[in-house]
Amino acid sequence: MLSYRSASPGYWTGWLLPLAIILSNPSKELIVIVVLEKSRNISLLISVAIFNWFMCLGNDPYPLFTYISLTFAFPYVFNNIIKYCPRSFTFGEALIVTQTFLLTFWNCVTHVPTPPPNLTDATTGEIVILFAEAGFLGVMIVTRLLVIAMKPWNFSFAEEFFCVWGKSCLVAMTFRLSIDDMWYLPKWLAAFIMERIILFSYCVVCVVLAFGFVYWKNMGKEQASSMHRKYFHFLILAVYLPGILIDREFLYLGSAAVMYIFVLTELLRSLRFKIFGNTIGEKIDESVGVFRDRQDEGRLIVTPLYLLAGCSLPIWLIGLHTSSEDLNEYDLAASMAGLISIGVGDTFASIGGTAFGNIRWRGTNKSFGGTVFCITSQIIFTWLLFVTGVCSFSSMVTLSLIIAAFVNSLVEALTDQIDNLILPLLTFNIVLCTNFIVQFSKWAIG
């Protein structure tokens, strides 16, 4: 019996990520993940895989093997996420987590075994993506080893299959890289950081401030309020905004690295991991327990992970095909979807709800005052980006962000899904849907 979080199923949220992928990177290959999330019918799954064979794959057997394997793995991964993390997700949230894992795994096993032939001639974006994808496979393998170390009886052939596949891709990558390339990678990473030492130092200061705040709250032993948790929203806004505007490659790699650290830390905490008699997991739980949200009712504390994922997913979806200077205005606005909706809107919704929360929406604990603050703060933030010359958005991009502000504010007030994950994807889709409508209109008229 699968055990979901005590909220509505949120079926509608399962289409947010597939739509975002289609809008940001149109590709026939995505039809598998888009269709199979609602499908448990074997014949339909097979027909989808065959469709991909004829439409996308040609005669290459490896992509066919990849698509079919991940197609049939979707229900298994979804069920195990709910099974091993009871009451941590709604149906829709579990769909998004499953989609994210499989799509990332798909990209990794497709790209990692075939790195650029000569890394010295590769672009910064190509090497950043190689580090991020190889890191994903490495974290997946370490996660499985930690689970086996704590629960050796919990063996699963399918989970081992994923890990062996990931190991094989990493081994294939090392065989394709020359000795010079192997030596080049750490030197490249050191040079990459040193070239951005000011931005790197700034991020380190923000991390120290985060740890300092956690330490201060643990000194008081009082449960953190919603306003206390919004401190991390301000910090992530302070880190991500300069990264998006100045150096997306650095932010792409840094956000992936921090996400991996968050996942491993949460795993150590939830497993109550011990090493040499030291209960590392319990110490982590004591430190972060004061920040536990009422929505973190299951085994996992997911709201911090959702905050990081919500701000990072728009950046990862846009990708590194262009530099920050050459990014078109719609992609730039979409990259900020998490910052505007969560870093600004959700934060000021909490402030407005605390100060003017007398009148509430029917059936919820959200207030009209919070919704007004949520809408107004996002519009003001967009206006400030424009008048300061930070972002020269056209009238259509500005209009899309204003529409997104109204829509995501209403959703924030009325949904019981975790908004840290839902609102950024919703905002992202609204901005890129506007771009699609504009481009289609131009094509129809011209």
Short characterization:
This protein is mainly α and 446 residues long. The protein is built from 18 helices and 2 strands.
Total strands? 2
- General form: globular
Q: How far apart are the termini? A: 56 Å
State the helicity in percent bands.
over 70%
User: What quaternary form is this?
Assistant: single chain
Task: Give a written overview of the molecule.
There is one protein chain. Helix content is 73%, strand content 1%. By secondary structure, it is mainly alpha-helical. Strands 1-2 form a two-stranded antiparallel sheet. α3 packs antiparallel against α4. About 3% of the residues have low confidence.
Task: Using brief descriptors, characterize the structure shown.
mainly alpha, two-stranded antiparallel sheet, 73% helix
Question: Topology of this structure?
Answer:
Layout: H1 16-24, H2 31-36, H3 42-57, H4 61-84, H5 91-111, H6 124-150, H7 157-176, H8 179-194, H9 197-220, H10 226-246, H11 248-271, E1 274-275, E2 278-279, H12 280-288, H13 303-318, H14 329-335, H15 337-355, H16 368-387, H17 395-414, H18 419-445
Antiparallel strand pairs: 1-2
